[in-house]
Amino acid sequence: MVPQSWLDHLTCGNILAVAAFFVAYLIAVYYRNRWSVYKNIPPGPRPYPVVGNLGGFLVPACIRRRFGQRTGRPDLHPTEAFAELARLYGDVYSLFIGSQLIVVLNGYEAVRDALSHHPEVFSDRPDIPAISIMTKRKGIVFAPYGPVWRKQRKFCHTTLRNFGLGKLSLEPCIQQGLATVKAELTRLSEERGAAGVDLTPLIGNAVSNVICSMILGQRFHHEDPEFHAMLDLMVRGLEICVNSPAVLINVFPLLYYWPFGVFRELRQVERDMTVFLKKSITKHRQTLDTDNPRDLVDMYLIEMMGRQAAGELDSSFTEDYLFYIVGDLFIAGTDTTTNSVLWILLYMALHPDIQVKVQTEMDEVVGRHRVPSLTDKGSLPFTEATIMEVQRLTVAVPLAIPHMASETTEFRGYTIPKGTVVVPNLWSVHRDPTVWDDADTFNPARFLDDEGQLQRKECFMPFGIGRRVCMGEQLAKMELFLTVTTLLQAFRFELPEGKPPPSLRGRFGLTLAPCPFTVCVSARTLNSESNSQ
Description:
With 533 residues, the chain is α+β, with helices and mostly antiparallel strands.
């Protein structure tokens, strides 16, 4: 006789064995069905279990070692990593974050083909946990493509145009901030002398105040501690999302609530920015005059109340949605343009011969006593070409904002399943050797024709292309031109003697910011110019 306890033990063991087999079978069926969808996807490195290709910014260890040994830089930059992967797998390749398929598009032809020729398929936004937790998939930048997004974007674009977007009427607002920058640069250059000046806070404040005047109806003093803190938080938050262990939130979303390290810091950044923006919206609601709207927030509140009065219960125009729109415009209207201006001034300090050519052209067209105007753009082709060349080499959002395939489609011989995250690598477009001669060299003349006139190139797309092209493109172009010309008219920028020049690889976050640097700023006077020559 077999003891009853043995029978009980065997029965329990059998049950556990059957359960384990059943779970294993279900997992196998799940992955078999899932991978059958990925049968004809673009080639790419083999993903690791659970994390996919997440390690080292999606770069397999073999590539990190090989590239690091060859260049002497084991800290592989994301743009370099994606370029190396393109050399191995082609202009369209696959990666995985966890089980999420990502298709990276490299080079001008692949990016243009997807975003210009297949806009209905590749204009959606993916549900990326780290972003979705903070934005609730609302606003303009990260909201899904569809009727709600189109309605909100159209309203915001129309409203911003009414407040001067892309028009000469906005020029005085931009110049007001630049007058403060010039005065502060004069003071700081005298105080700090050969140590140099950090341009970031001054440029960031001036740029941000332009969009703040349009959406919040106010300007902030450059020494306002709360506003200065918000600008710092914005930069730090963007960097954490892309360039820290917080990227693991996209594989394990619960890490967002981890009470330590960068996860805790990211939540604090979100809380502080939320308080700042919601306080401004509340103040607008309390002081709203429907007959005299001051800015975009006022216009949105008026539109929202009108739709509610008309009985549109399912309207997407809500104060909650407004909060995310304001956040999008505040960040997008500040960070990218600020970084672009800083890059341009850094390149001018690194290439004094180009700086002199720009200033000579300006002296001939604008002179020293009249403030540059947008009406001068057509008469300053070399200046415009220089701005464009720096934008080409230091594209503000190098990997663009991720897109998503809204349906399964065939693209360049591969199957792109519905829900695939699509990354247009704009950095690779601007370094594509098939469309740019000597692509890694700084050469403003590439944007000029034989007669010295500016020529536009389709392969130049710092603001993206397609239906998700940057809504603030015209505003950014205005600010870049006026800021660069106004400062170069008044000052000469040089690197401090005895200090090594900053790396041109930049700091990679959602945007590409220059590494911290200082410049010696000196006023351009006729006497100093003639002596230097």
